[in-house]
């Protein structure tokens, strides 16, 4: 049987779009830091080509023989790498705001957390298929059943949110874990408790970090007038925050989207990429794309992503093997939550989290990890009956 072509070609289309905009958007960064003119384009082109080849090569393997090896290697090696990289000298790791997130290799840097997410999803799928079933259980029995997974997740929180200071990735993993548990066979009441617990954990993580508190205040400063206008004046005054720093990145992001209009300013003709949006080719890539190709271009990208997710979830729903069903579901959830969190962040619906846009943001680790995950989904799709 053949792999799902819709999944493969929609991924190729998204990667190609990302390569095109890696030439257009980083203009200011190239000039300011004196990079070679095609620095970002060439690197994204090479990574995109390798990612597409990896996705195709993995899709040709037999899932019954290869899935477990790929999944456990990603999970085990990347977990070890995330823990060990903090003991490595600065010559071997790259810092981001004081946190060590990338391992330096000849010619490029690798972020283990991106590959760990795929391995983590596979481990959960493999373990849930063996430990959790549809039989009715008491809440106490369910808690005992999921306790090891909570402990495992807390280790992931320590490795990612504390050692790497990356709360956004933890939020994506937490939401994926909770939804996968529900589809594995846990009750809806446990799902509600899990969502509440994840919310409490996020609140604790925010209020124990000064920069996260400042980020929340900065975000609230942009939306408070609209929200508080719906409340009585006495109540609104209680929630109003004064004197917060202006979130210039979000302001410029919104202005870039507005400036693009429906059809955009034209490929390469954006102006907010010229020093206003400092991370326009990474975290704010959607805002940069929106300015140059407009709402129409964003609708095309969103449509490609929806086609991809629909086909992935279709493979999941038709997989008779529970491990395959849960793993493909998990990969679809990772892509969904990452896109939603980024798009909500750049439009100020939620605070910005620093999550890459799947297949579009500049960065080799994210693209390669997603291509491996999608390649594994393509492996599974060969076992699914149309």
TrEMBL record:
The chain crosses the membrane at residues 7-32, 38-56, 68-88, 108-129, 141-161, 167-183, 190-209, 293-313, 325-347, 359-380. GO terms for biological process: cell division; peptidoglycan biosynthetic process; regulation of cell shape. Pfam families: FTSW_RODA_SPOVE. Belongs to the SEDS family. FtsW subfamily. This is Probable peptidoglycan glycosyltransferase FtsW. GO terms for cellular component: cell division site; plasma membrane. Keywords: Cell shape, Glycosyltransferase, Membrane, Peptidoglycan synthesis, Transferase, Transmembrane, Transmembrane helix.
